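Structure ticket #2291
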Amino acid sequence: MFSCDKRTENQSLPLPTCEGKHELGFFVNHDPWIPKDTEMYKEHQLPKVKIDDGLIRISATRIDEKNHCRNWFCVETFNPQLNEGKFEIINSTCKAVYQTYYYGENKDMSSEIYSLNSAHQNLIEFNCIDTINNIIAGKFSFSAIDEFGKVLTFESGRFDLLLEE
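Resolution: structure written out below.
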């Protein structure tokens, strides 16, 4: 079966920083995952972070032309005071934390949709929230499960993102 999660050995996660580098990365079941957009989906030029009435949403997409699929990642938490610290990932507006959609040669393959796995501790930690320079940085880990019970583990997640204006 095809997999959108395989990466080459020379690709690694971004370093944990708070410099507004607009980077994000994590491991999915021990394989590195870094956003990649081919300009195919203009509305998904990601990674992206948005804050709306205390809800912080971080999302990213990766196009895998070789396997004819697009992965989409989305986590949310409620942090109305924009405090640094650990928060539970809650996902209210983006119901799926991870999705894979197939196209082209693989268009007949079923989409894979994962929700938060409540059997796991799903946390995001903000190490830096700089509203003057519009920077938000931190780390996360969580587990996701599909309707068939397939589990994905997201570990060593880190982000150093620019806030949407």
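Closing remark: The CA atoms of residues 54 and 80 lie 4 Å apart.
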